[in-house]
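Quick log. Single chain, no ligands specified.
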Amino acid sequence: MGMPPSAHERAFGLAYDELRARWPGSTEERDVDTPYGPTRVHVHGPVDGPPLVLLPGGSATGLVWFANAPALGARYRVHAVDLLGDAGRTERRGRPLKGADDLTAWLDALLDGLGLTRAHLCGHSYGAWLAARYALHAPERVDRLALVDPTRVFAGFRPGYLLRALPVLTRPSEARARAFLAWETAGTRPDEAWQRLYALASTAPGRKLVAGGRPRVAGLRAPLLVLLAERSRAHRAAEVADRVRRTLPEAEVVLLPGATHHSLPLTAPERLDERLLAFLG
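-> predicted structure:
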């Protein structure tokens, strides 16, 4: 007999299922075995569509792409992943998760388990950092790379953002997570069900996001799209855009007007989908 679920686990499960219900009806849930534990993937789109793997930001869960799934899934076989070490339905068991190399090894195993030799890769925030690292680790497996307001890829965090985030990291509570989200997303009104899930994910016991250094982006070989939130408080979008253009002049850089860091990818998803679909071709 296992332990009965805690009040937090019950609340998280309800919020998770509520957001899952917002995905298209044909979406499949897959639990893919990896040496680090089973990974939950939300799969939507034509079986023979080109594969597109979506990596979310921290605390967002793979479900955060619910508003993008219909448009992206019309053309691509979408695989939205609950990240290893984060809250969600991906379990951590087996090989220990110690560093960034474990995350790239986990993604290798995940793509193998999904039967994907190659895929388009798109990540937001922490997921963009992971996507960039993976594209450097396994360039032969990444067709095209899209980074949505990437953090710690081209620039560090703004000190003011870290100052606001600190209470959420050191003394996590749902109220602190909601206050931080309200500050960063001011004026964009992200989906309420997702905000509830984010706050619960931020305070999930045992959550362990593995960090690492900034990737050596000059080595990226895949065609690259960088979508930046015009009003991101995580970093200064104009400075990041400059750095991308200087380091990787072939990359496409797009500013998403009115967007903030945490309001992506789910506010004004049409603009994001349009640019992403045009890039993926």
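The first helix runs from residue 7 to 20.
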